[in-house]
């Protein structure tokens, strides 16, 4: 145990759990930037009977903010119940790193568990989730199971989730992951990651409020991308994808589709969505649009590849690996059996000129 771990462990151990309280989620590291991070965990304090007579756990999110982090270092910590975790702090400058992007982990828990085991073995520096973590974010019973499955991964990699429609904009999603705004961004090395909330259906009480949210988010995203023009790669993560090879949904997500021109204007390298439970890779005006929704949810068809745009589709459980080294980024979609479904590379935009 190093000195830092001892220090953090000492601080946390001084926060005692009540007699009836149980840690049922975490630990995990969220909001991780070059110098700060939030360590989160979820506590259950008893049960209550809901309107249907079902016993439901009473949950609350606990957090601790770490400041003064050093870019590139690995930080360890200990929860009050003795559970240990660690995470990497984003490095700065031209450096190599790995990440996993995956999503739609709801409903088929055994497959979700297998995907998490495969990702944990690969041991990425951090993880992006494209949303639909659980089938119903308003059902407190579902969160402890999600956290139980994700535990080994969340204990070793920073976590950056996007809001899916199945979260139902649940206050607990925001509380657990210490999300003050459902859109945010961060830098890792010379790559810039922008996470947005595409669940317009739950973004406001009425049409006017939803419109206000969407315009605010769009303005923020445009500003965010303007500031990130010197990054080697600009990557956008969201739940609803702008393009899909799932015929039933090809007329949906028009608001998201309308963002494509903005992404092209600000030289976004790639977007990663979920929502459709399969793997898809489209290339539109030089921007890669990936759908990675194979984290366990029931599979959907890829019955209508888009002529001239779709490069690869497969209806299969999978996750996406991102490996960045100075001057190059490699993407691989990997099935549960280790089969590489798709592989391609990005080069920094400046190098293409
Ligand atoms: Fe979804």
Number of structural domains: 1
General form: globular
Query: What is the first-to-last residue Cα distance?
Result: 49 Å
Number of helices: 7
Tell me the CATH topology. Purple Acid Phosphatase, chain A, domain 2
Order of helices and strands: HEEEEEEHEHEHEEHEHHEEEEEEE
Could you characterize what this model shows?
The chain has helices spanning 3-13, 109-122, 142-154, 171-176, 207-227, 254-257, 260-265, and strands spanning 21-30, 37-49, 55-66, 74-78, 84-88, 97-102, 126-129, 158-161, 184-188, 191-195, 233-237, 270-273, 279-284, 287-292, 310-314, 318-325, 328-335, 340-346. It is α/β, with parallel strands linked by helices and 353 residues long. It has a single domain (86-352), classed as Metallo-dependent phosphatases (Purple Acid Phosphatase, chain A, domain 2, 4-Layer Sandwich), CATH 3.60.21.10. The protein has a seven-stranded mixed β-sheet with strand order 9-10-11-12-14-13-15, with helices on one face. Helix 2 packs parallel to helix 3 (142-154). The longest helix is centred in the middle third of the chain and has 21 residues, at 207-227. The site of fe (ii) ion has 6 residues, from loops.
């Amino acid at each position: 145990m190093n000195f830092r771990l001892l220090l953090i462990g000492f601080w946390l151990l001084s926060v005692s759990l009540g007699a009836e309280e149980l840690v049922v989620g975490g630990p995990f590291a969220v909001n991780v930037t070059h110098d700060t991070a939030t360590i989160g965990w979820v506590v259950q304090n008893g049960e209550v009977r809901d309107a249907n007579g079902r016993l439901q756990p009473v949950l609350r999110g606990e957090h601790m903010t770490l400041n003064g982090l050093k870019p590139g270092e690995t930080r360890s910590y200990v929860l009050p119940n003795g559970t240990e975790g660690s995470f990497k702090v984003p490095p700065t400058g031209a450096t190599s790193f790995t990440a996993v992007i995956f999503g739609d982990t709801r409903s088929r828990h055994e497959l979700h568990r297998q995907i998490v085991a495969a990702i944990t073995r690969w041991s990425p520096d951090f993880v992006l989730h494209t949303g639909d973590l659980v089938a119903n974010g308003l059902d407190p019973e579902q969160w402890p199971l999600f956290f139980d499955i994700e535990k080994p991964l969340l204990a070793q990699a920073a976590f950056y989730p996007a809001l899916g429609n199945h979260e139902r904009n649940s206050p607990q999603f925001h509380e657990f992951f210490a999300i003050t705004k459902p859109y945010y961004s961060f830098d890792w090395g010379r790559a810039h990651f922008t996470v947005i909330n595409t669940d317009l259906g739950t973004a406001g009480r009425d049409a006017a409020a939803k419109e206000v949210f969407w315009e605010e988010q769009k303005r923020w995203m445009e500003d965010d991308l303007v500031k990130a023009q010197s990054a080697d790669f600009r990557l956008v993560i969201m739940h609803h994808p702008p393009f899909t090879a799932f015929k039933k949904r090809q007329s949906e997500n028009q608001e998201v589709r309308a963002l494509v021109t903005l992404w092209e204007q600000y030289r976004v390298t790639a977007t990663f969505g979920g929502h459709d439970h399969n793997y898809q890779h489209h290339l539109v005006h030089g921007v890669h649009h990936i759908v990675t929704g194979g984290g366990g949810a029931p599979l959907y068809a890829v019955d209508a590849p888009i002529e001239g745009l779709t490069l690869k589709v497969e209806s299969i459980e999978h996750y996406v690996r991102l490996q960045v080294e100075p001057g190059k980024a490699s993407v691989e979609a990997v099935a549960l059996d280790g089969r590489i479904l798709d592989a391609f590379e990005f080069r920094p935009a400046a190098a293409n000129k």
